Amino acid sequence: MSMSIKSTSRILLCGGGNAIHVLAAYFGAKPGTHVTVLSLYPGEADRLRNAIPSEGIRCVNDLGEDIVGRPDAVTSSASDVPDDLDLVIFALPSFTHE
User: Fold this and answer.
1) I need a surface site. Which of 11, 14, 41, 75 has the fewest CB within 10 A?
2) Residues 35-57: tens digit of each pLDDT
3) Domains along the sequence of the chain with CATH
4) What is the superkingdom listed in this entry's lineage (predicted)?
5) Which letter does DSSP use for residue 91 in this model?
């Protein structure tokens, strides 16, 4: 599957688990892409923000080159999320789907 991202895309990733880590690396590696991670689970945004290495999150790809990228912001507050988003992704466990 191929996905075209504009050179100035603004992306919101909602969640804090494994999928968010992969998506933050993938989209964060795209030049000109602004990535915000929103995690409402208590303490999760702080843990994620503090755990990201300065070079970014490394997503190991057994079939090709690894991807390294980082989100521009990690927050637990919806008021910190940019208004002019191009894409919103909810990567949440199934028990939250109610």
Assistant:
1) 41
2) 999 999 999 999 999 999 999 99
3) 10-96 (3.40.50.720)
4) Eukaryota
5) -
